[in-house]
Amino acid sequence: MSRQLTIKEREFVHNLLDKDNQKTYANQTRSYMKAYDTDNYGVAATEASRNLDKPKIREYLEELYEKNNVSIQDRVQILSTIAHGHGKGETTTYRVREGKEELETRIETSPSFTDRIKAVDVLTKVKGDYDKVRVMADVAKSEYARLCRDILKDVRLDVKRGKR
User: Fold this and answer.
1) What are phi and psi of 109, to 5 degrees?
2) Which residues pair with 96 in a beta bridge?
3) Tens digits of residue pLDDT in 46-55
4) 10 Å Cβ neighbour count for 68?
5) Which pTM does this prediction carry?
6) Pick from 67, 29, 70, 63: which is nearest to 48 by CA?
7) Among positive and negative, which fits the CA dihedral 62, 63, 67, 68?
8) 106: helix, coil or strand?
9) How many angstroms separate the Cα of 7 from the Cα of each of 10, 24, 31, 36, 143?
10) C-alpha–C-alpha distance, residues 111 and 89, integer Å
């Protein structure tokens, strides 16, 4: 199936699965930005989502997951960890040069609000919960509703503390 992918589509998938690249690993928007050489985050987010809706790309992803023994349960666990705000977000390195000495500071963040919402979105797709009638009927009982409330509570606290 992978023969039908363009070079950029294949690069997009490999960026998405590249554990050695913290910026693109499991981040469809940044994977798209790197593969298609764009700086437009909004366009990249939309197009990355469209890419992942293409059957040939989904099949290629599944092929790679199977080849590397990554089960659907493993993927759901990773997404769940991100959605709950645990795990690593981005690492930013600041370098300051003072005379002949260079100081380096690394700041590791937890997953961003956008990453958390995207993880909830992907989990919802995986579970097939985008059937609007079912979502409306089950939203009060759903773990997703609790998760969204937790995320909103965190955002409100961040806003109060001046972090957003």
Assistant:
1) -110, 160
2) 103
3) 898 889 889 8
4) 9
5) 0.48
6) 29
7) negative
8) strand
9) 5, 17, 13, 10, 39
10) 4
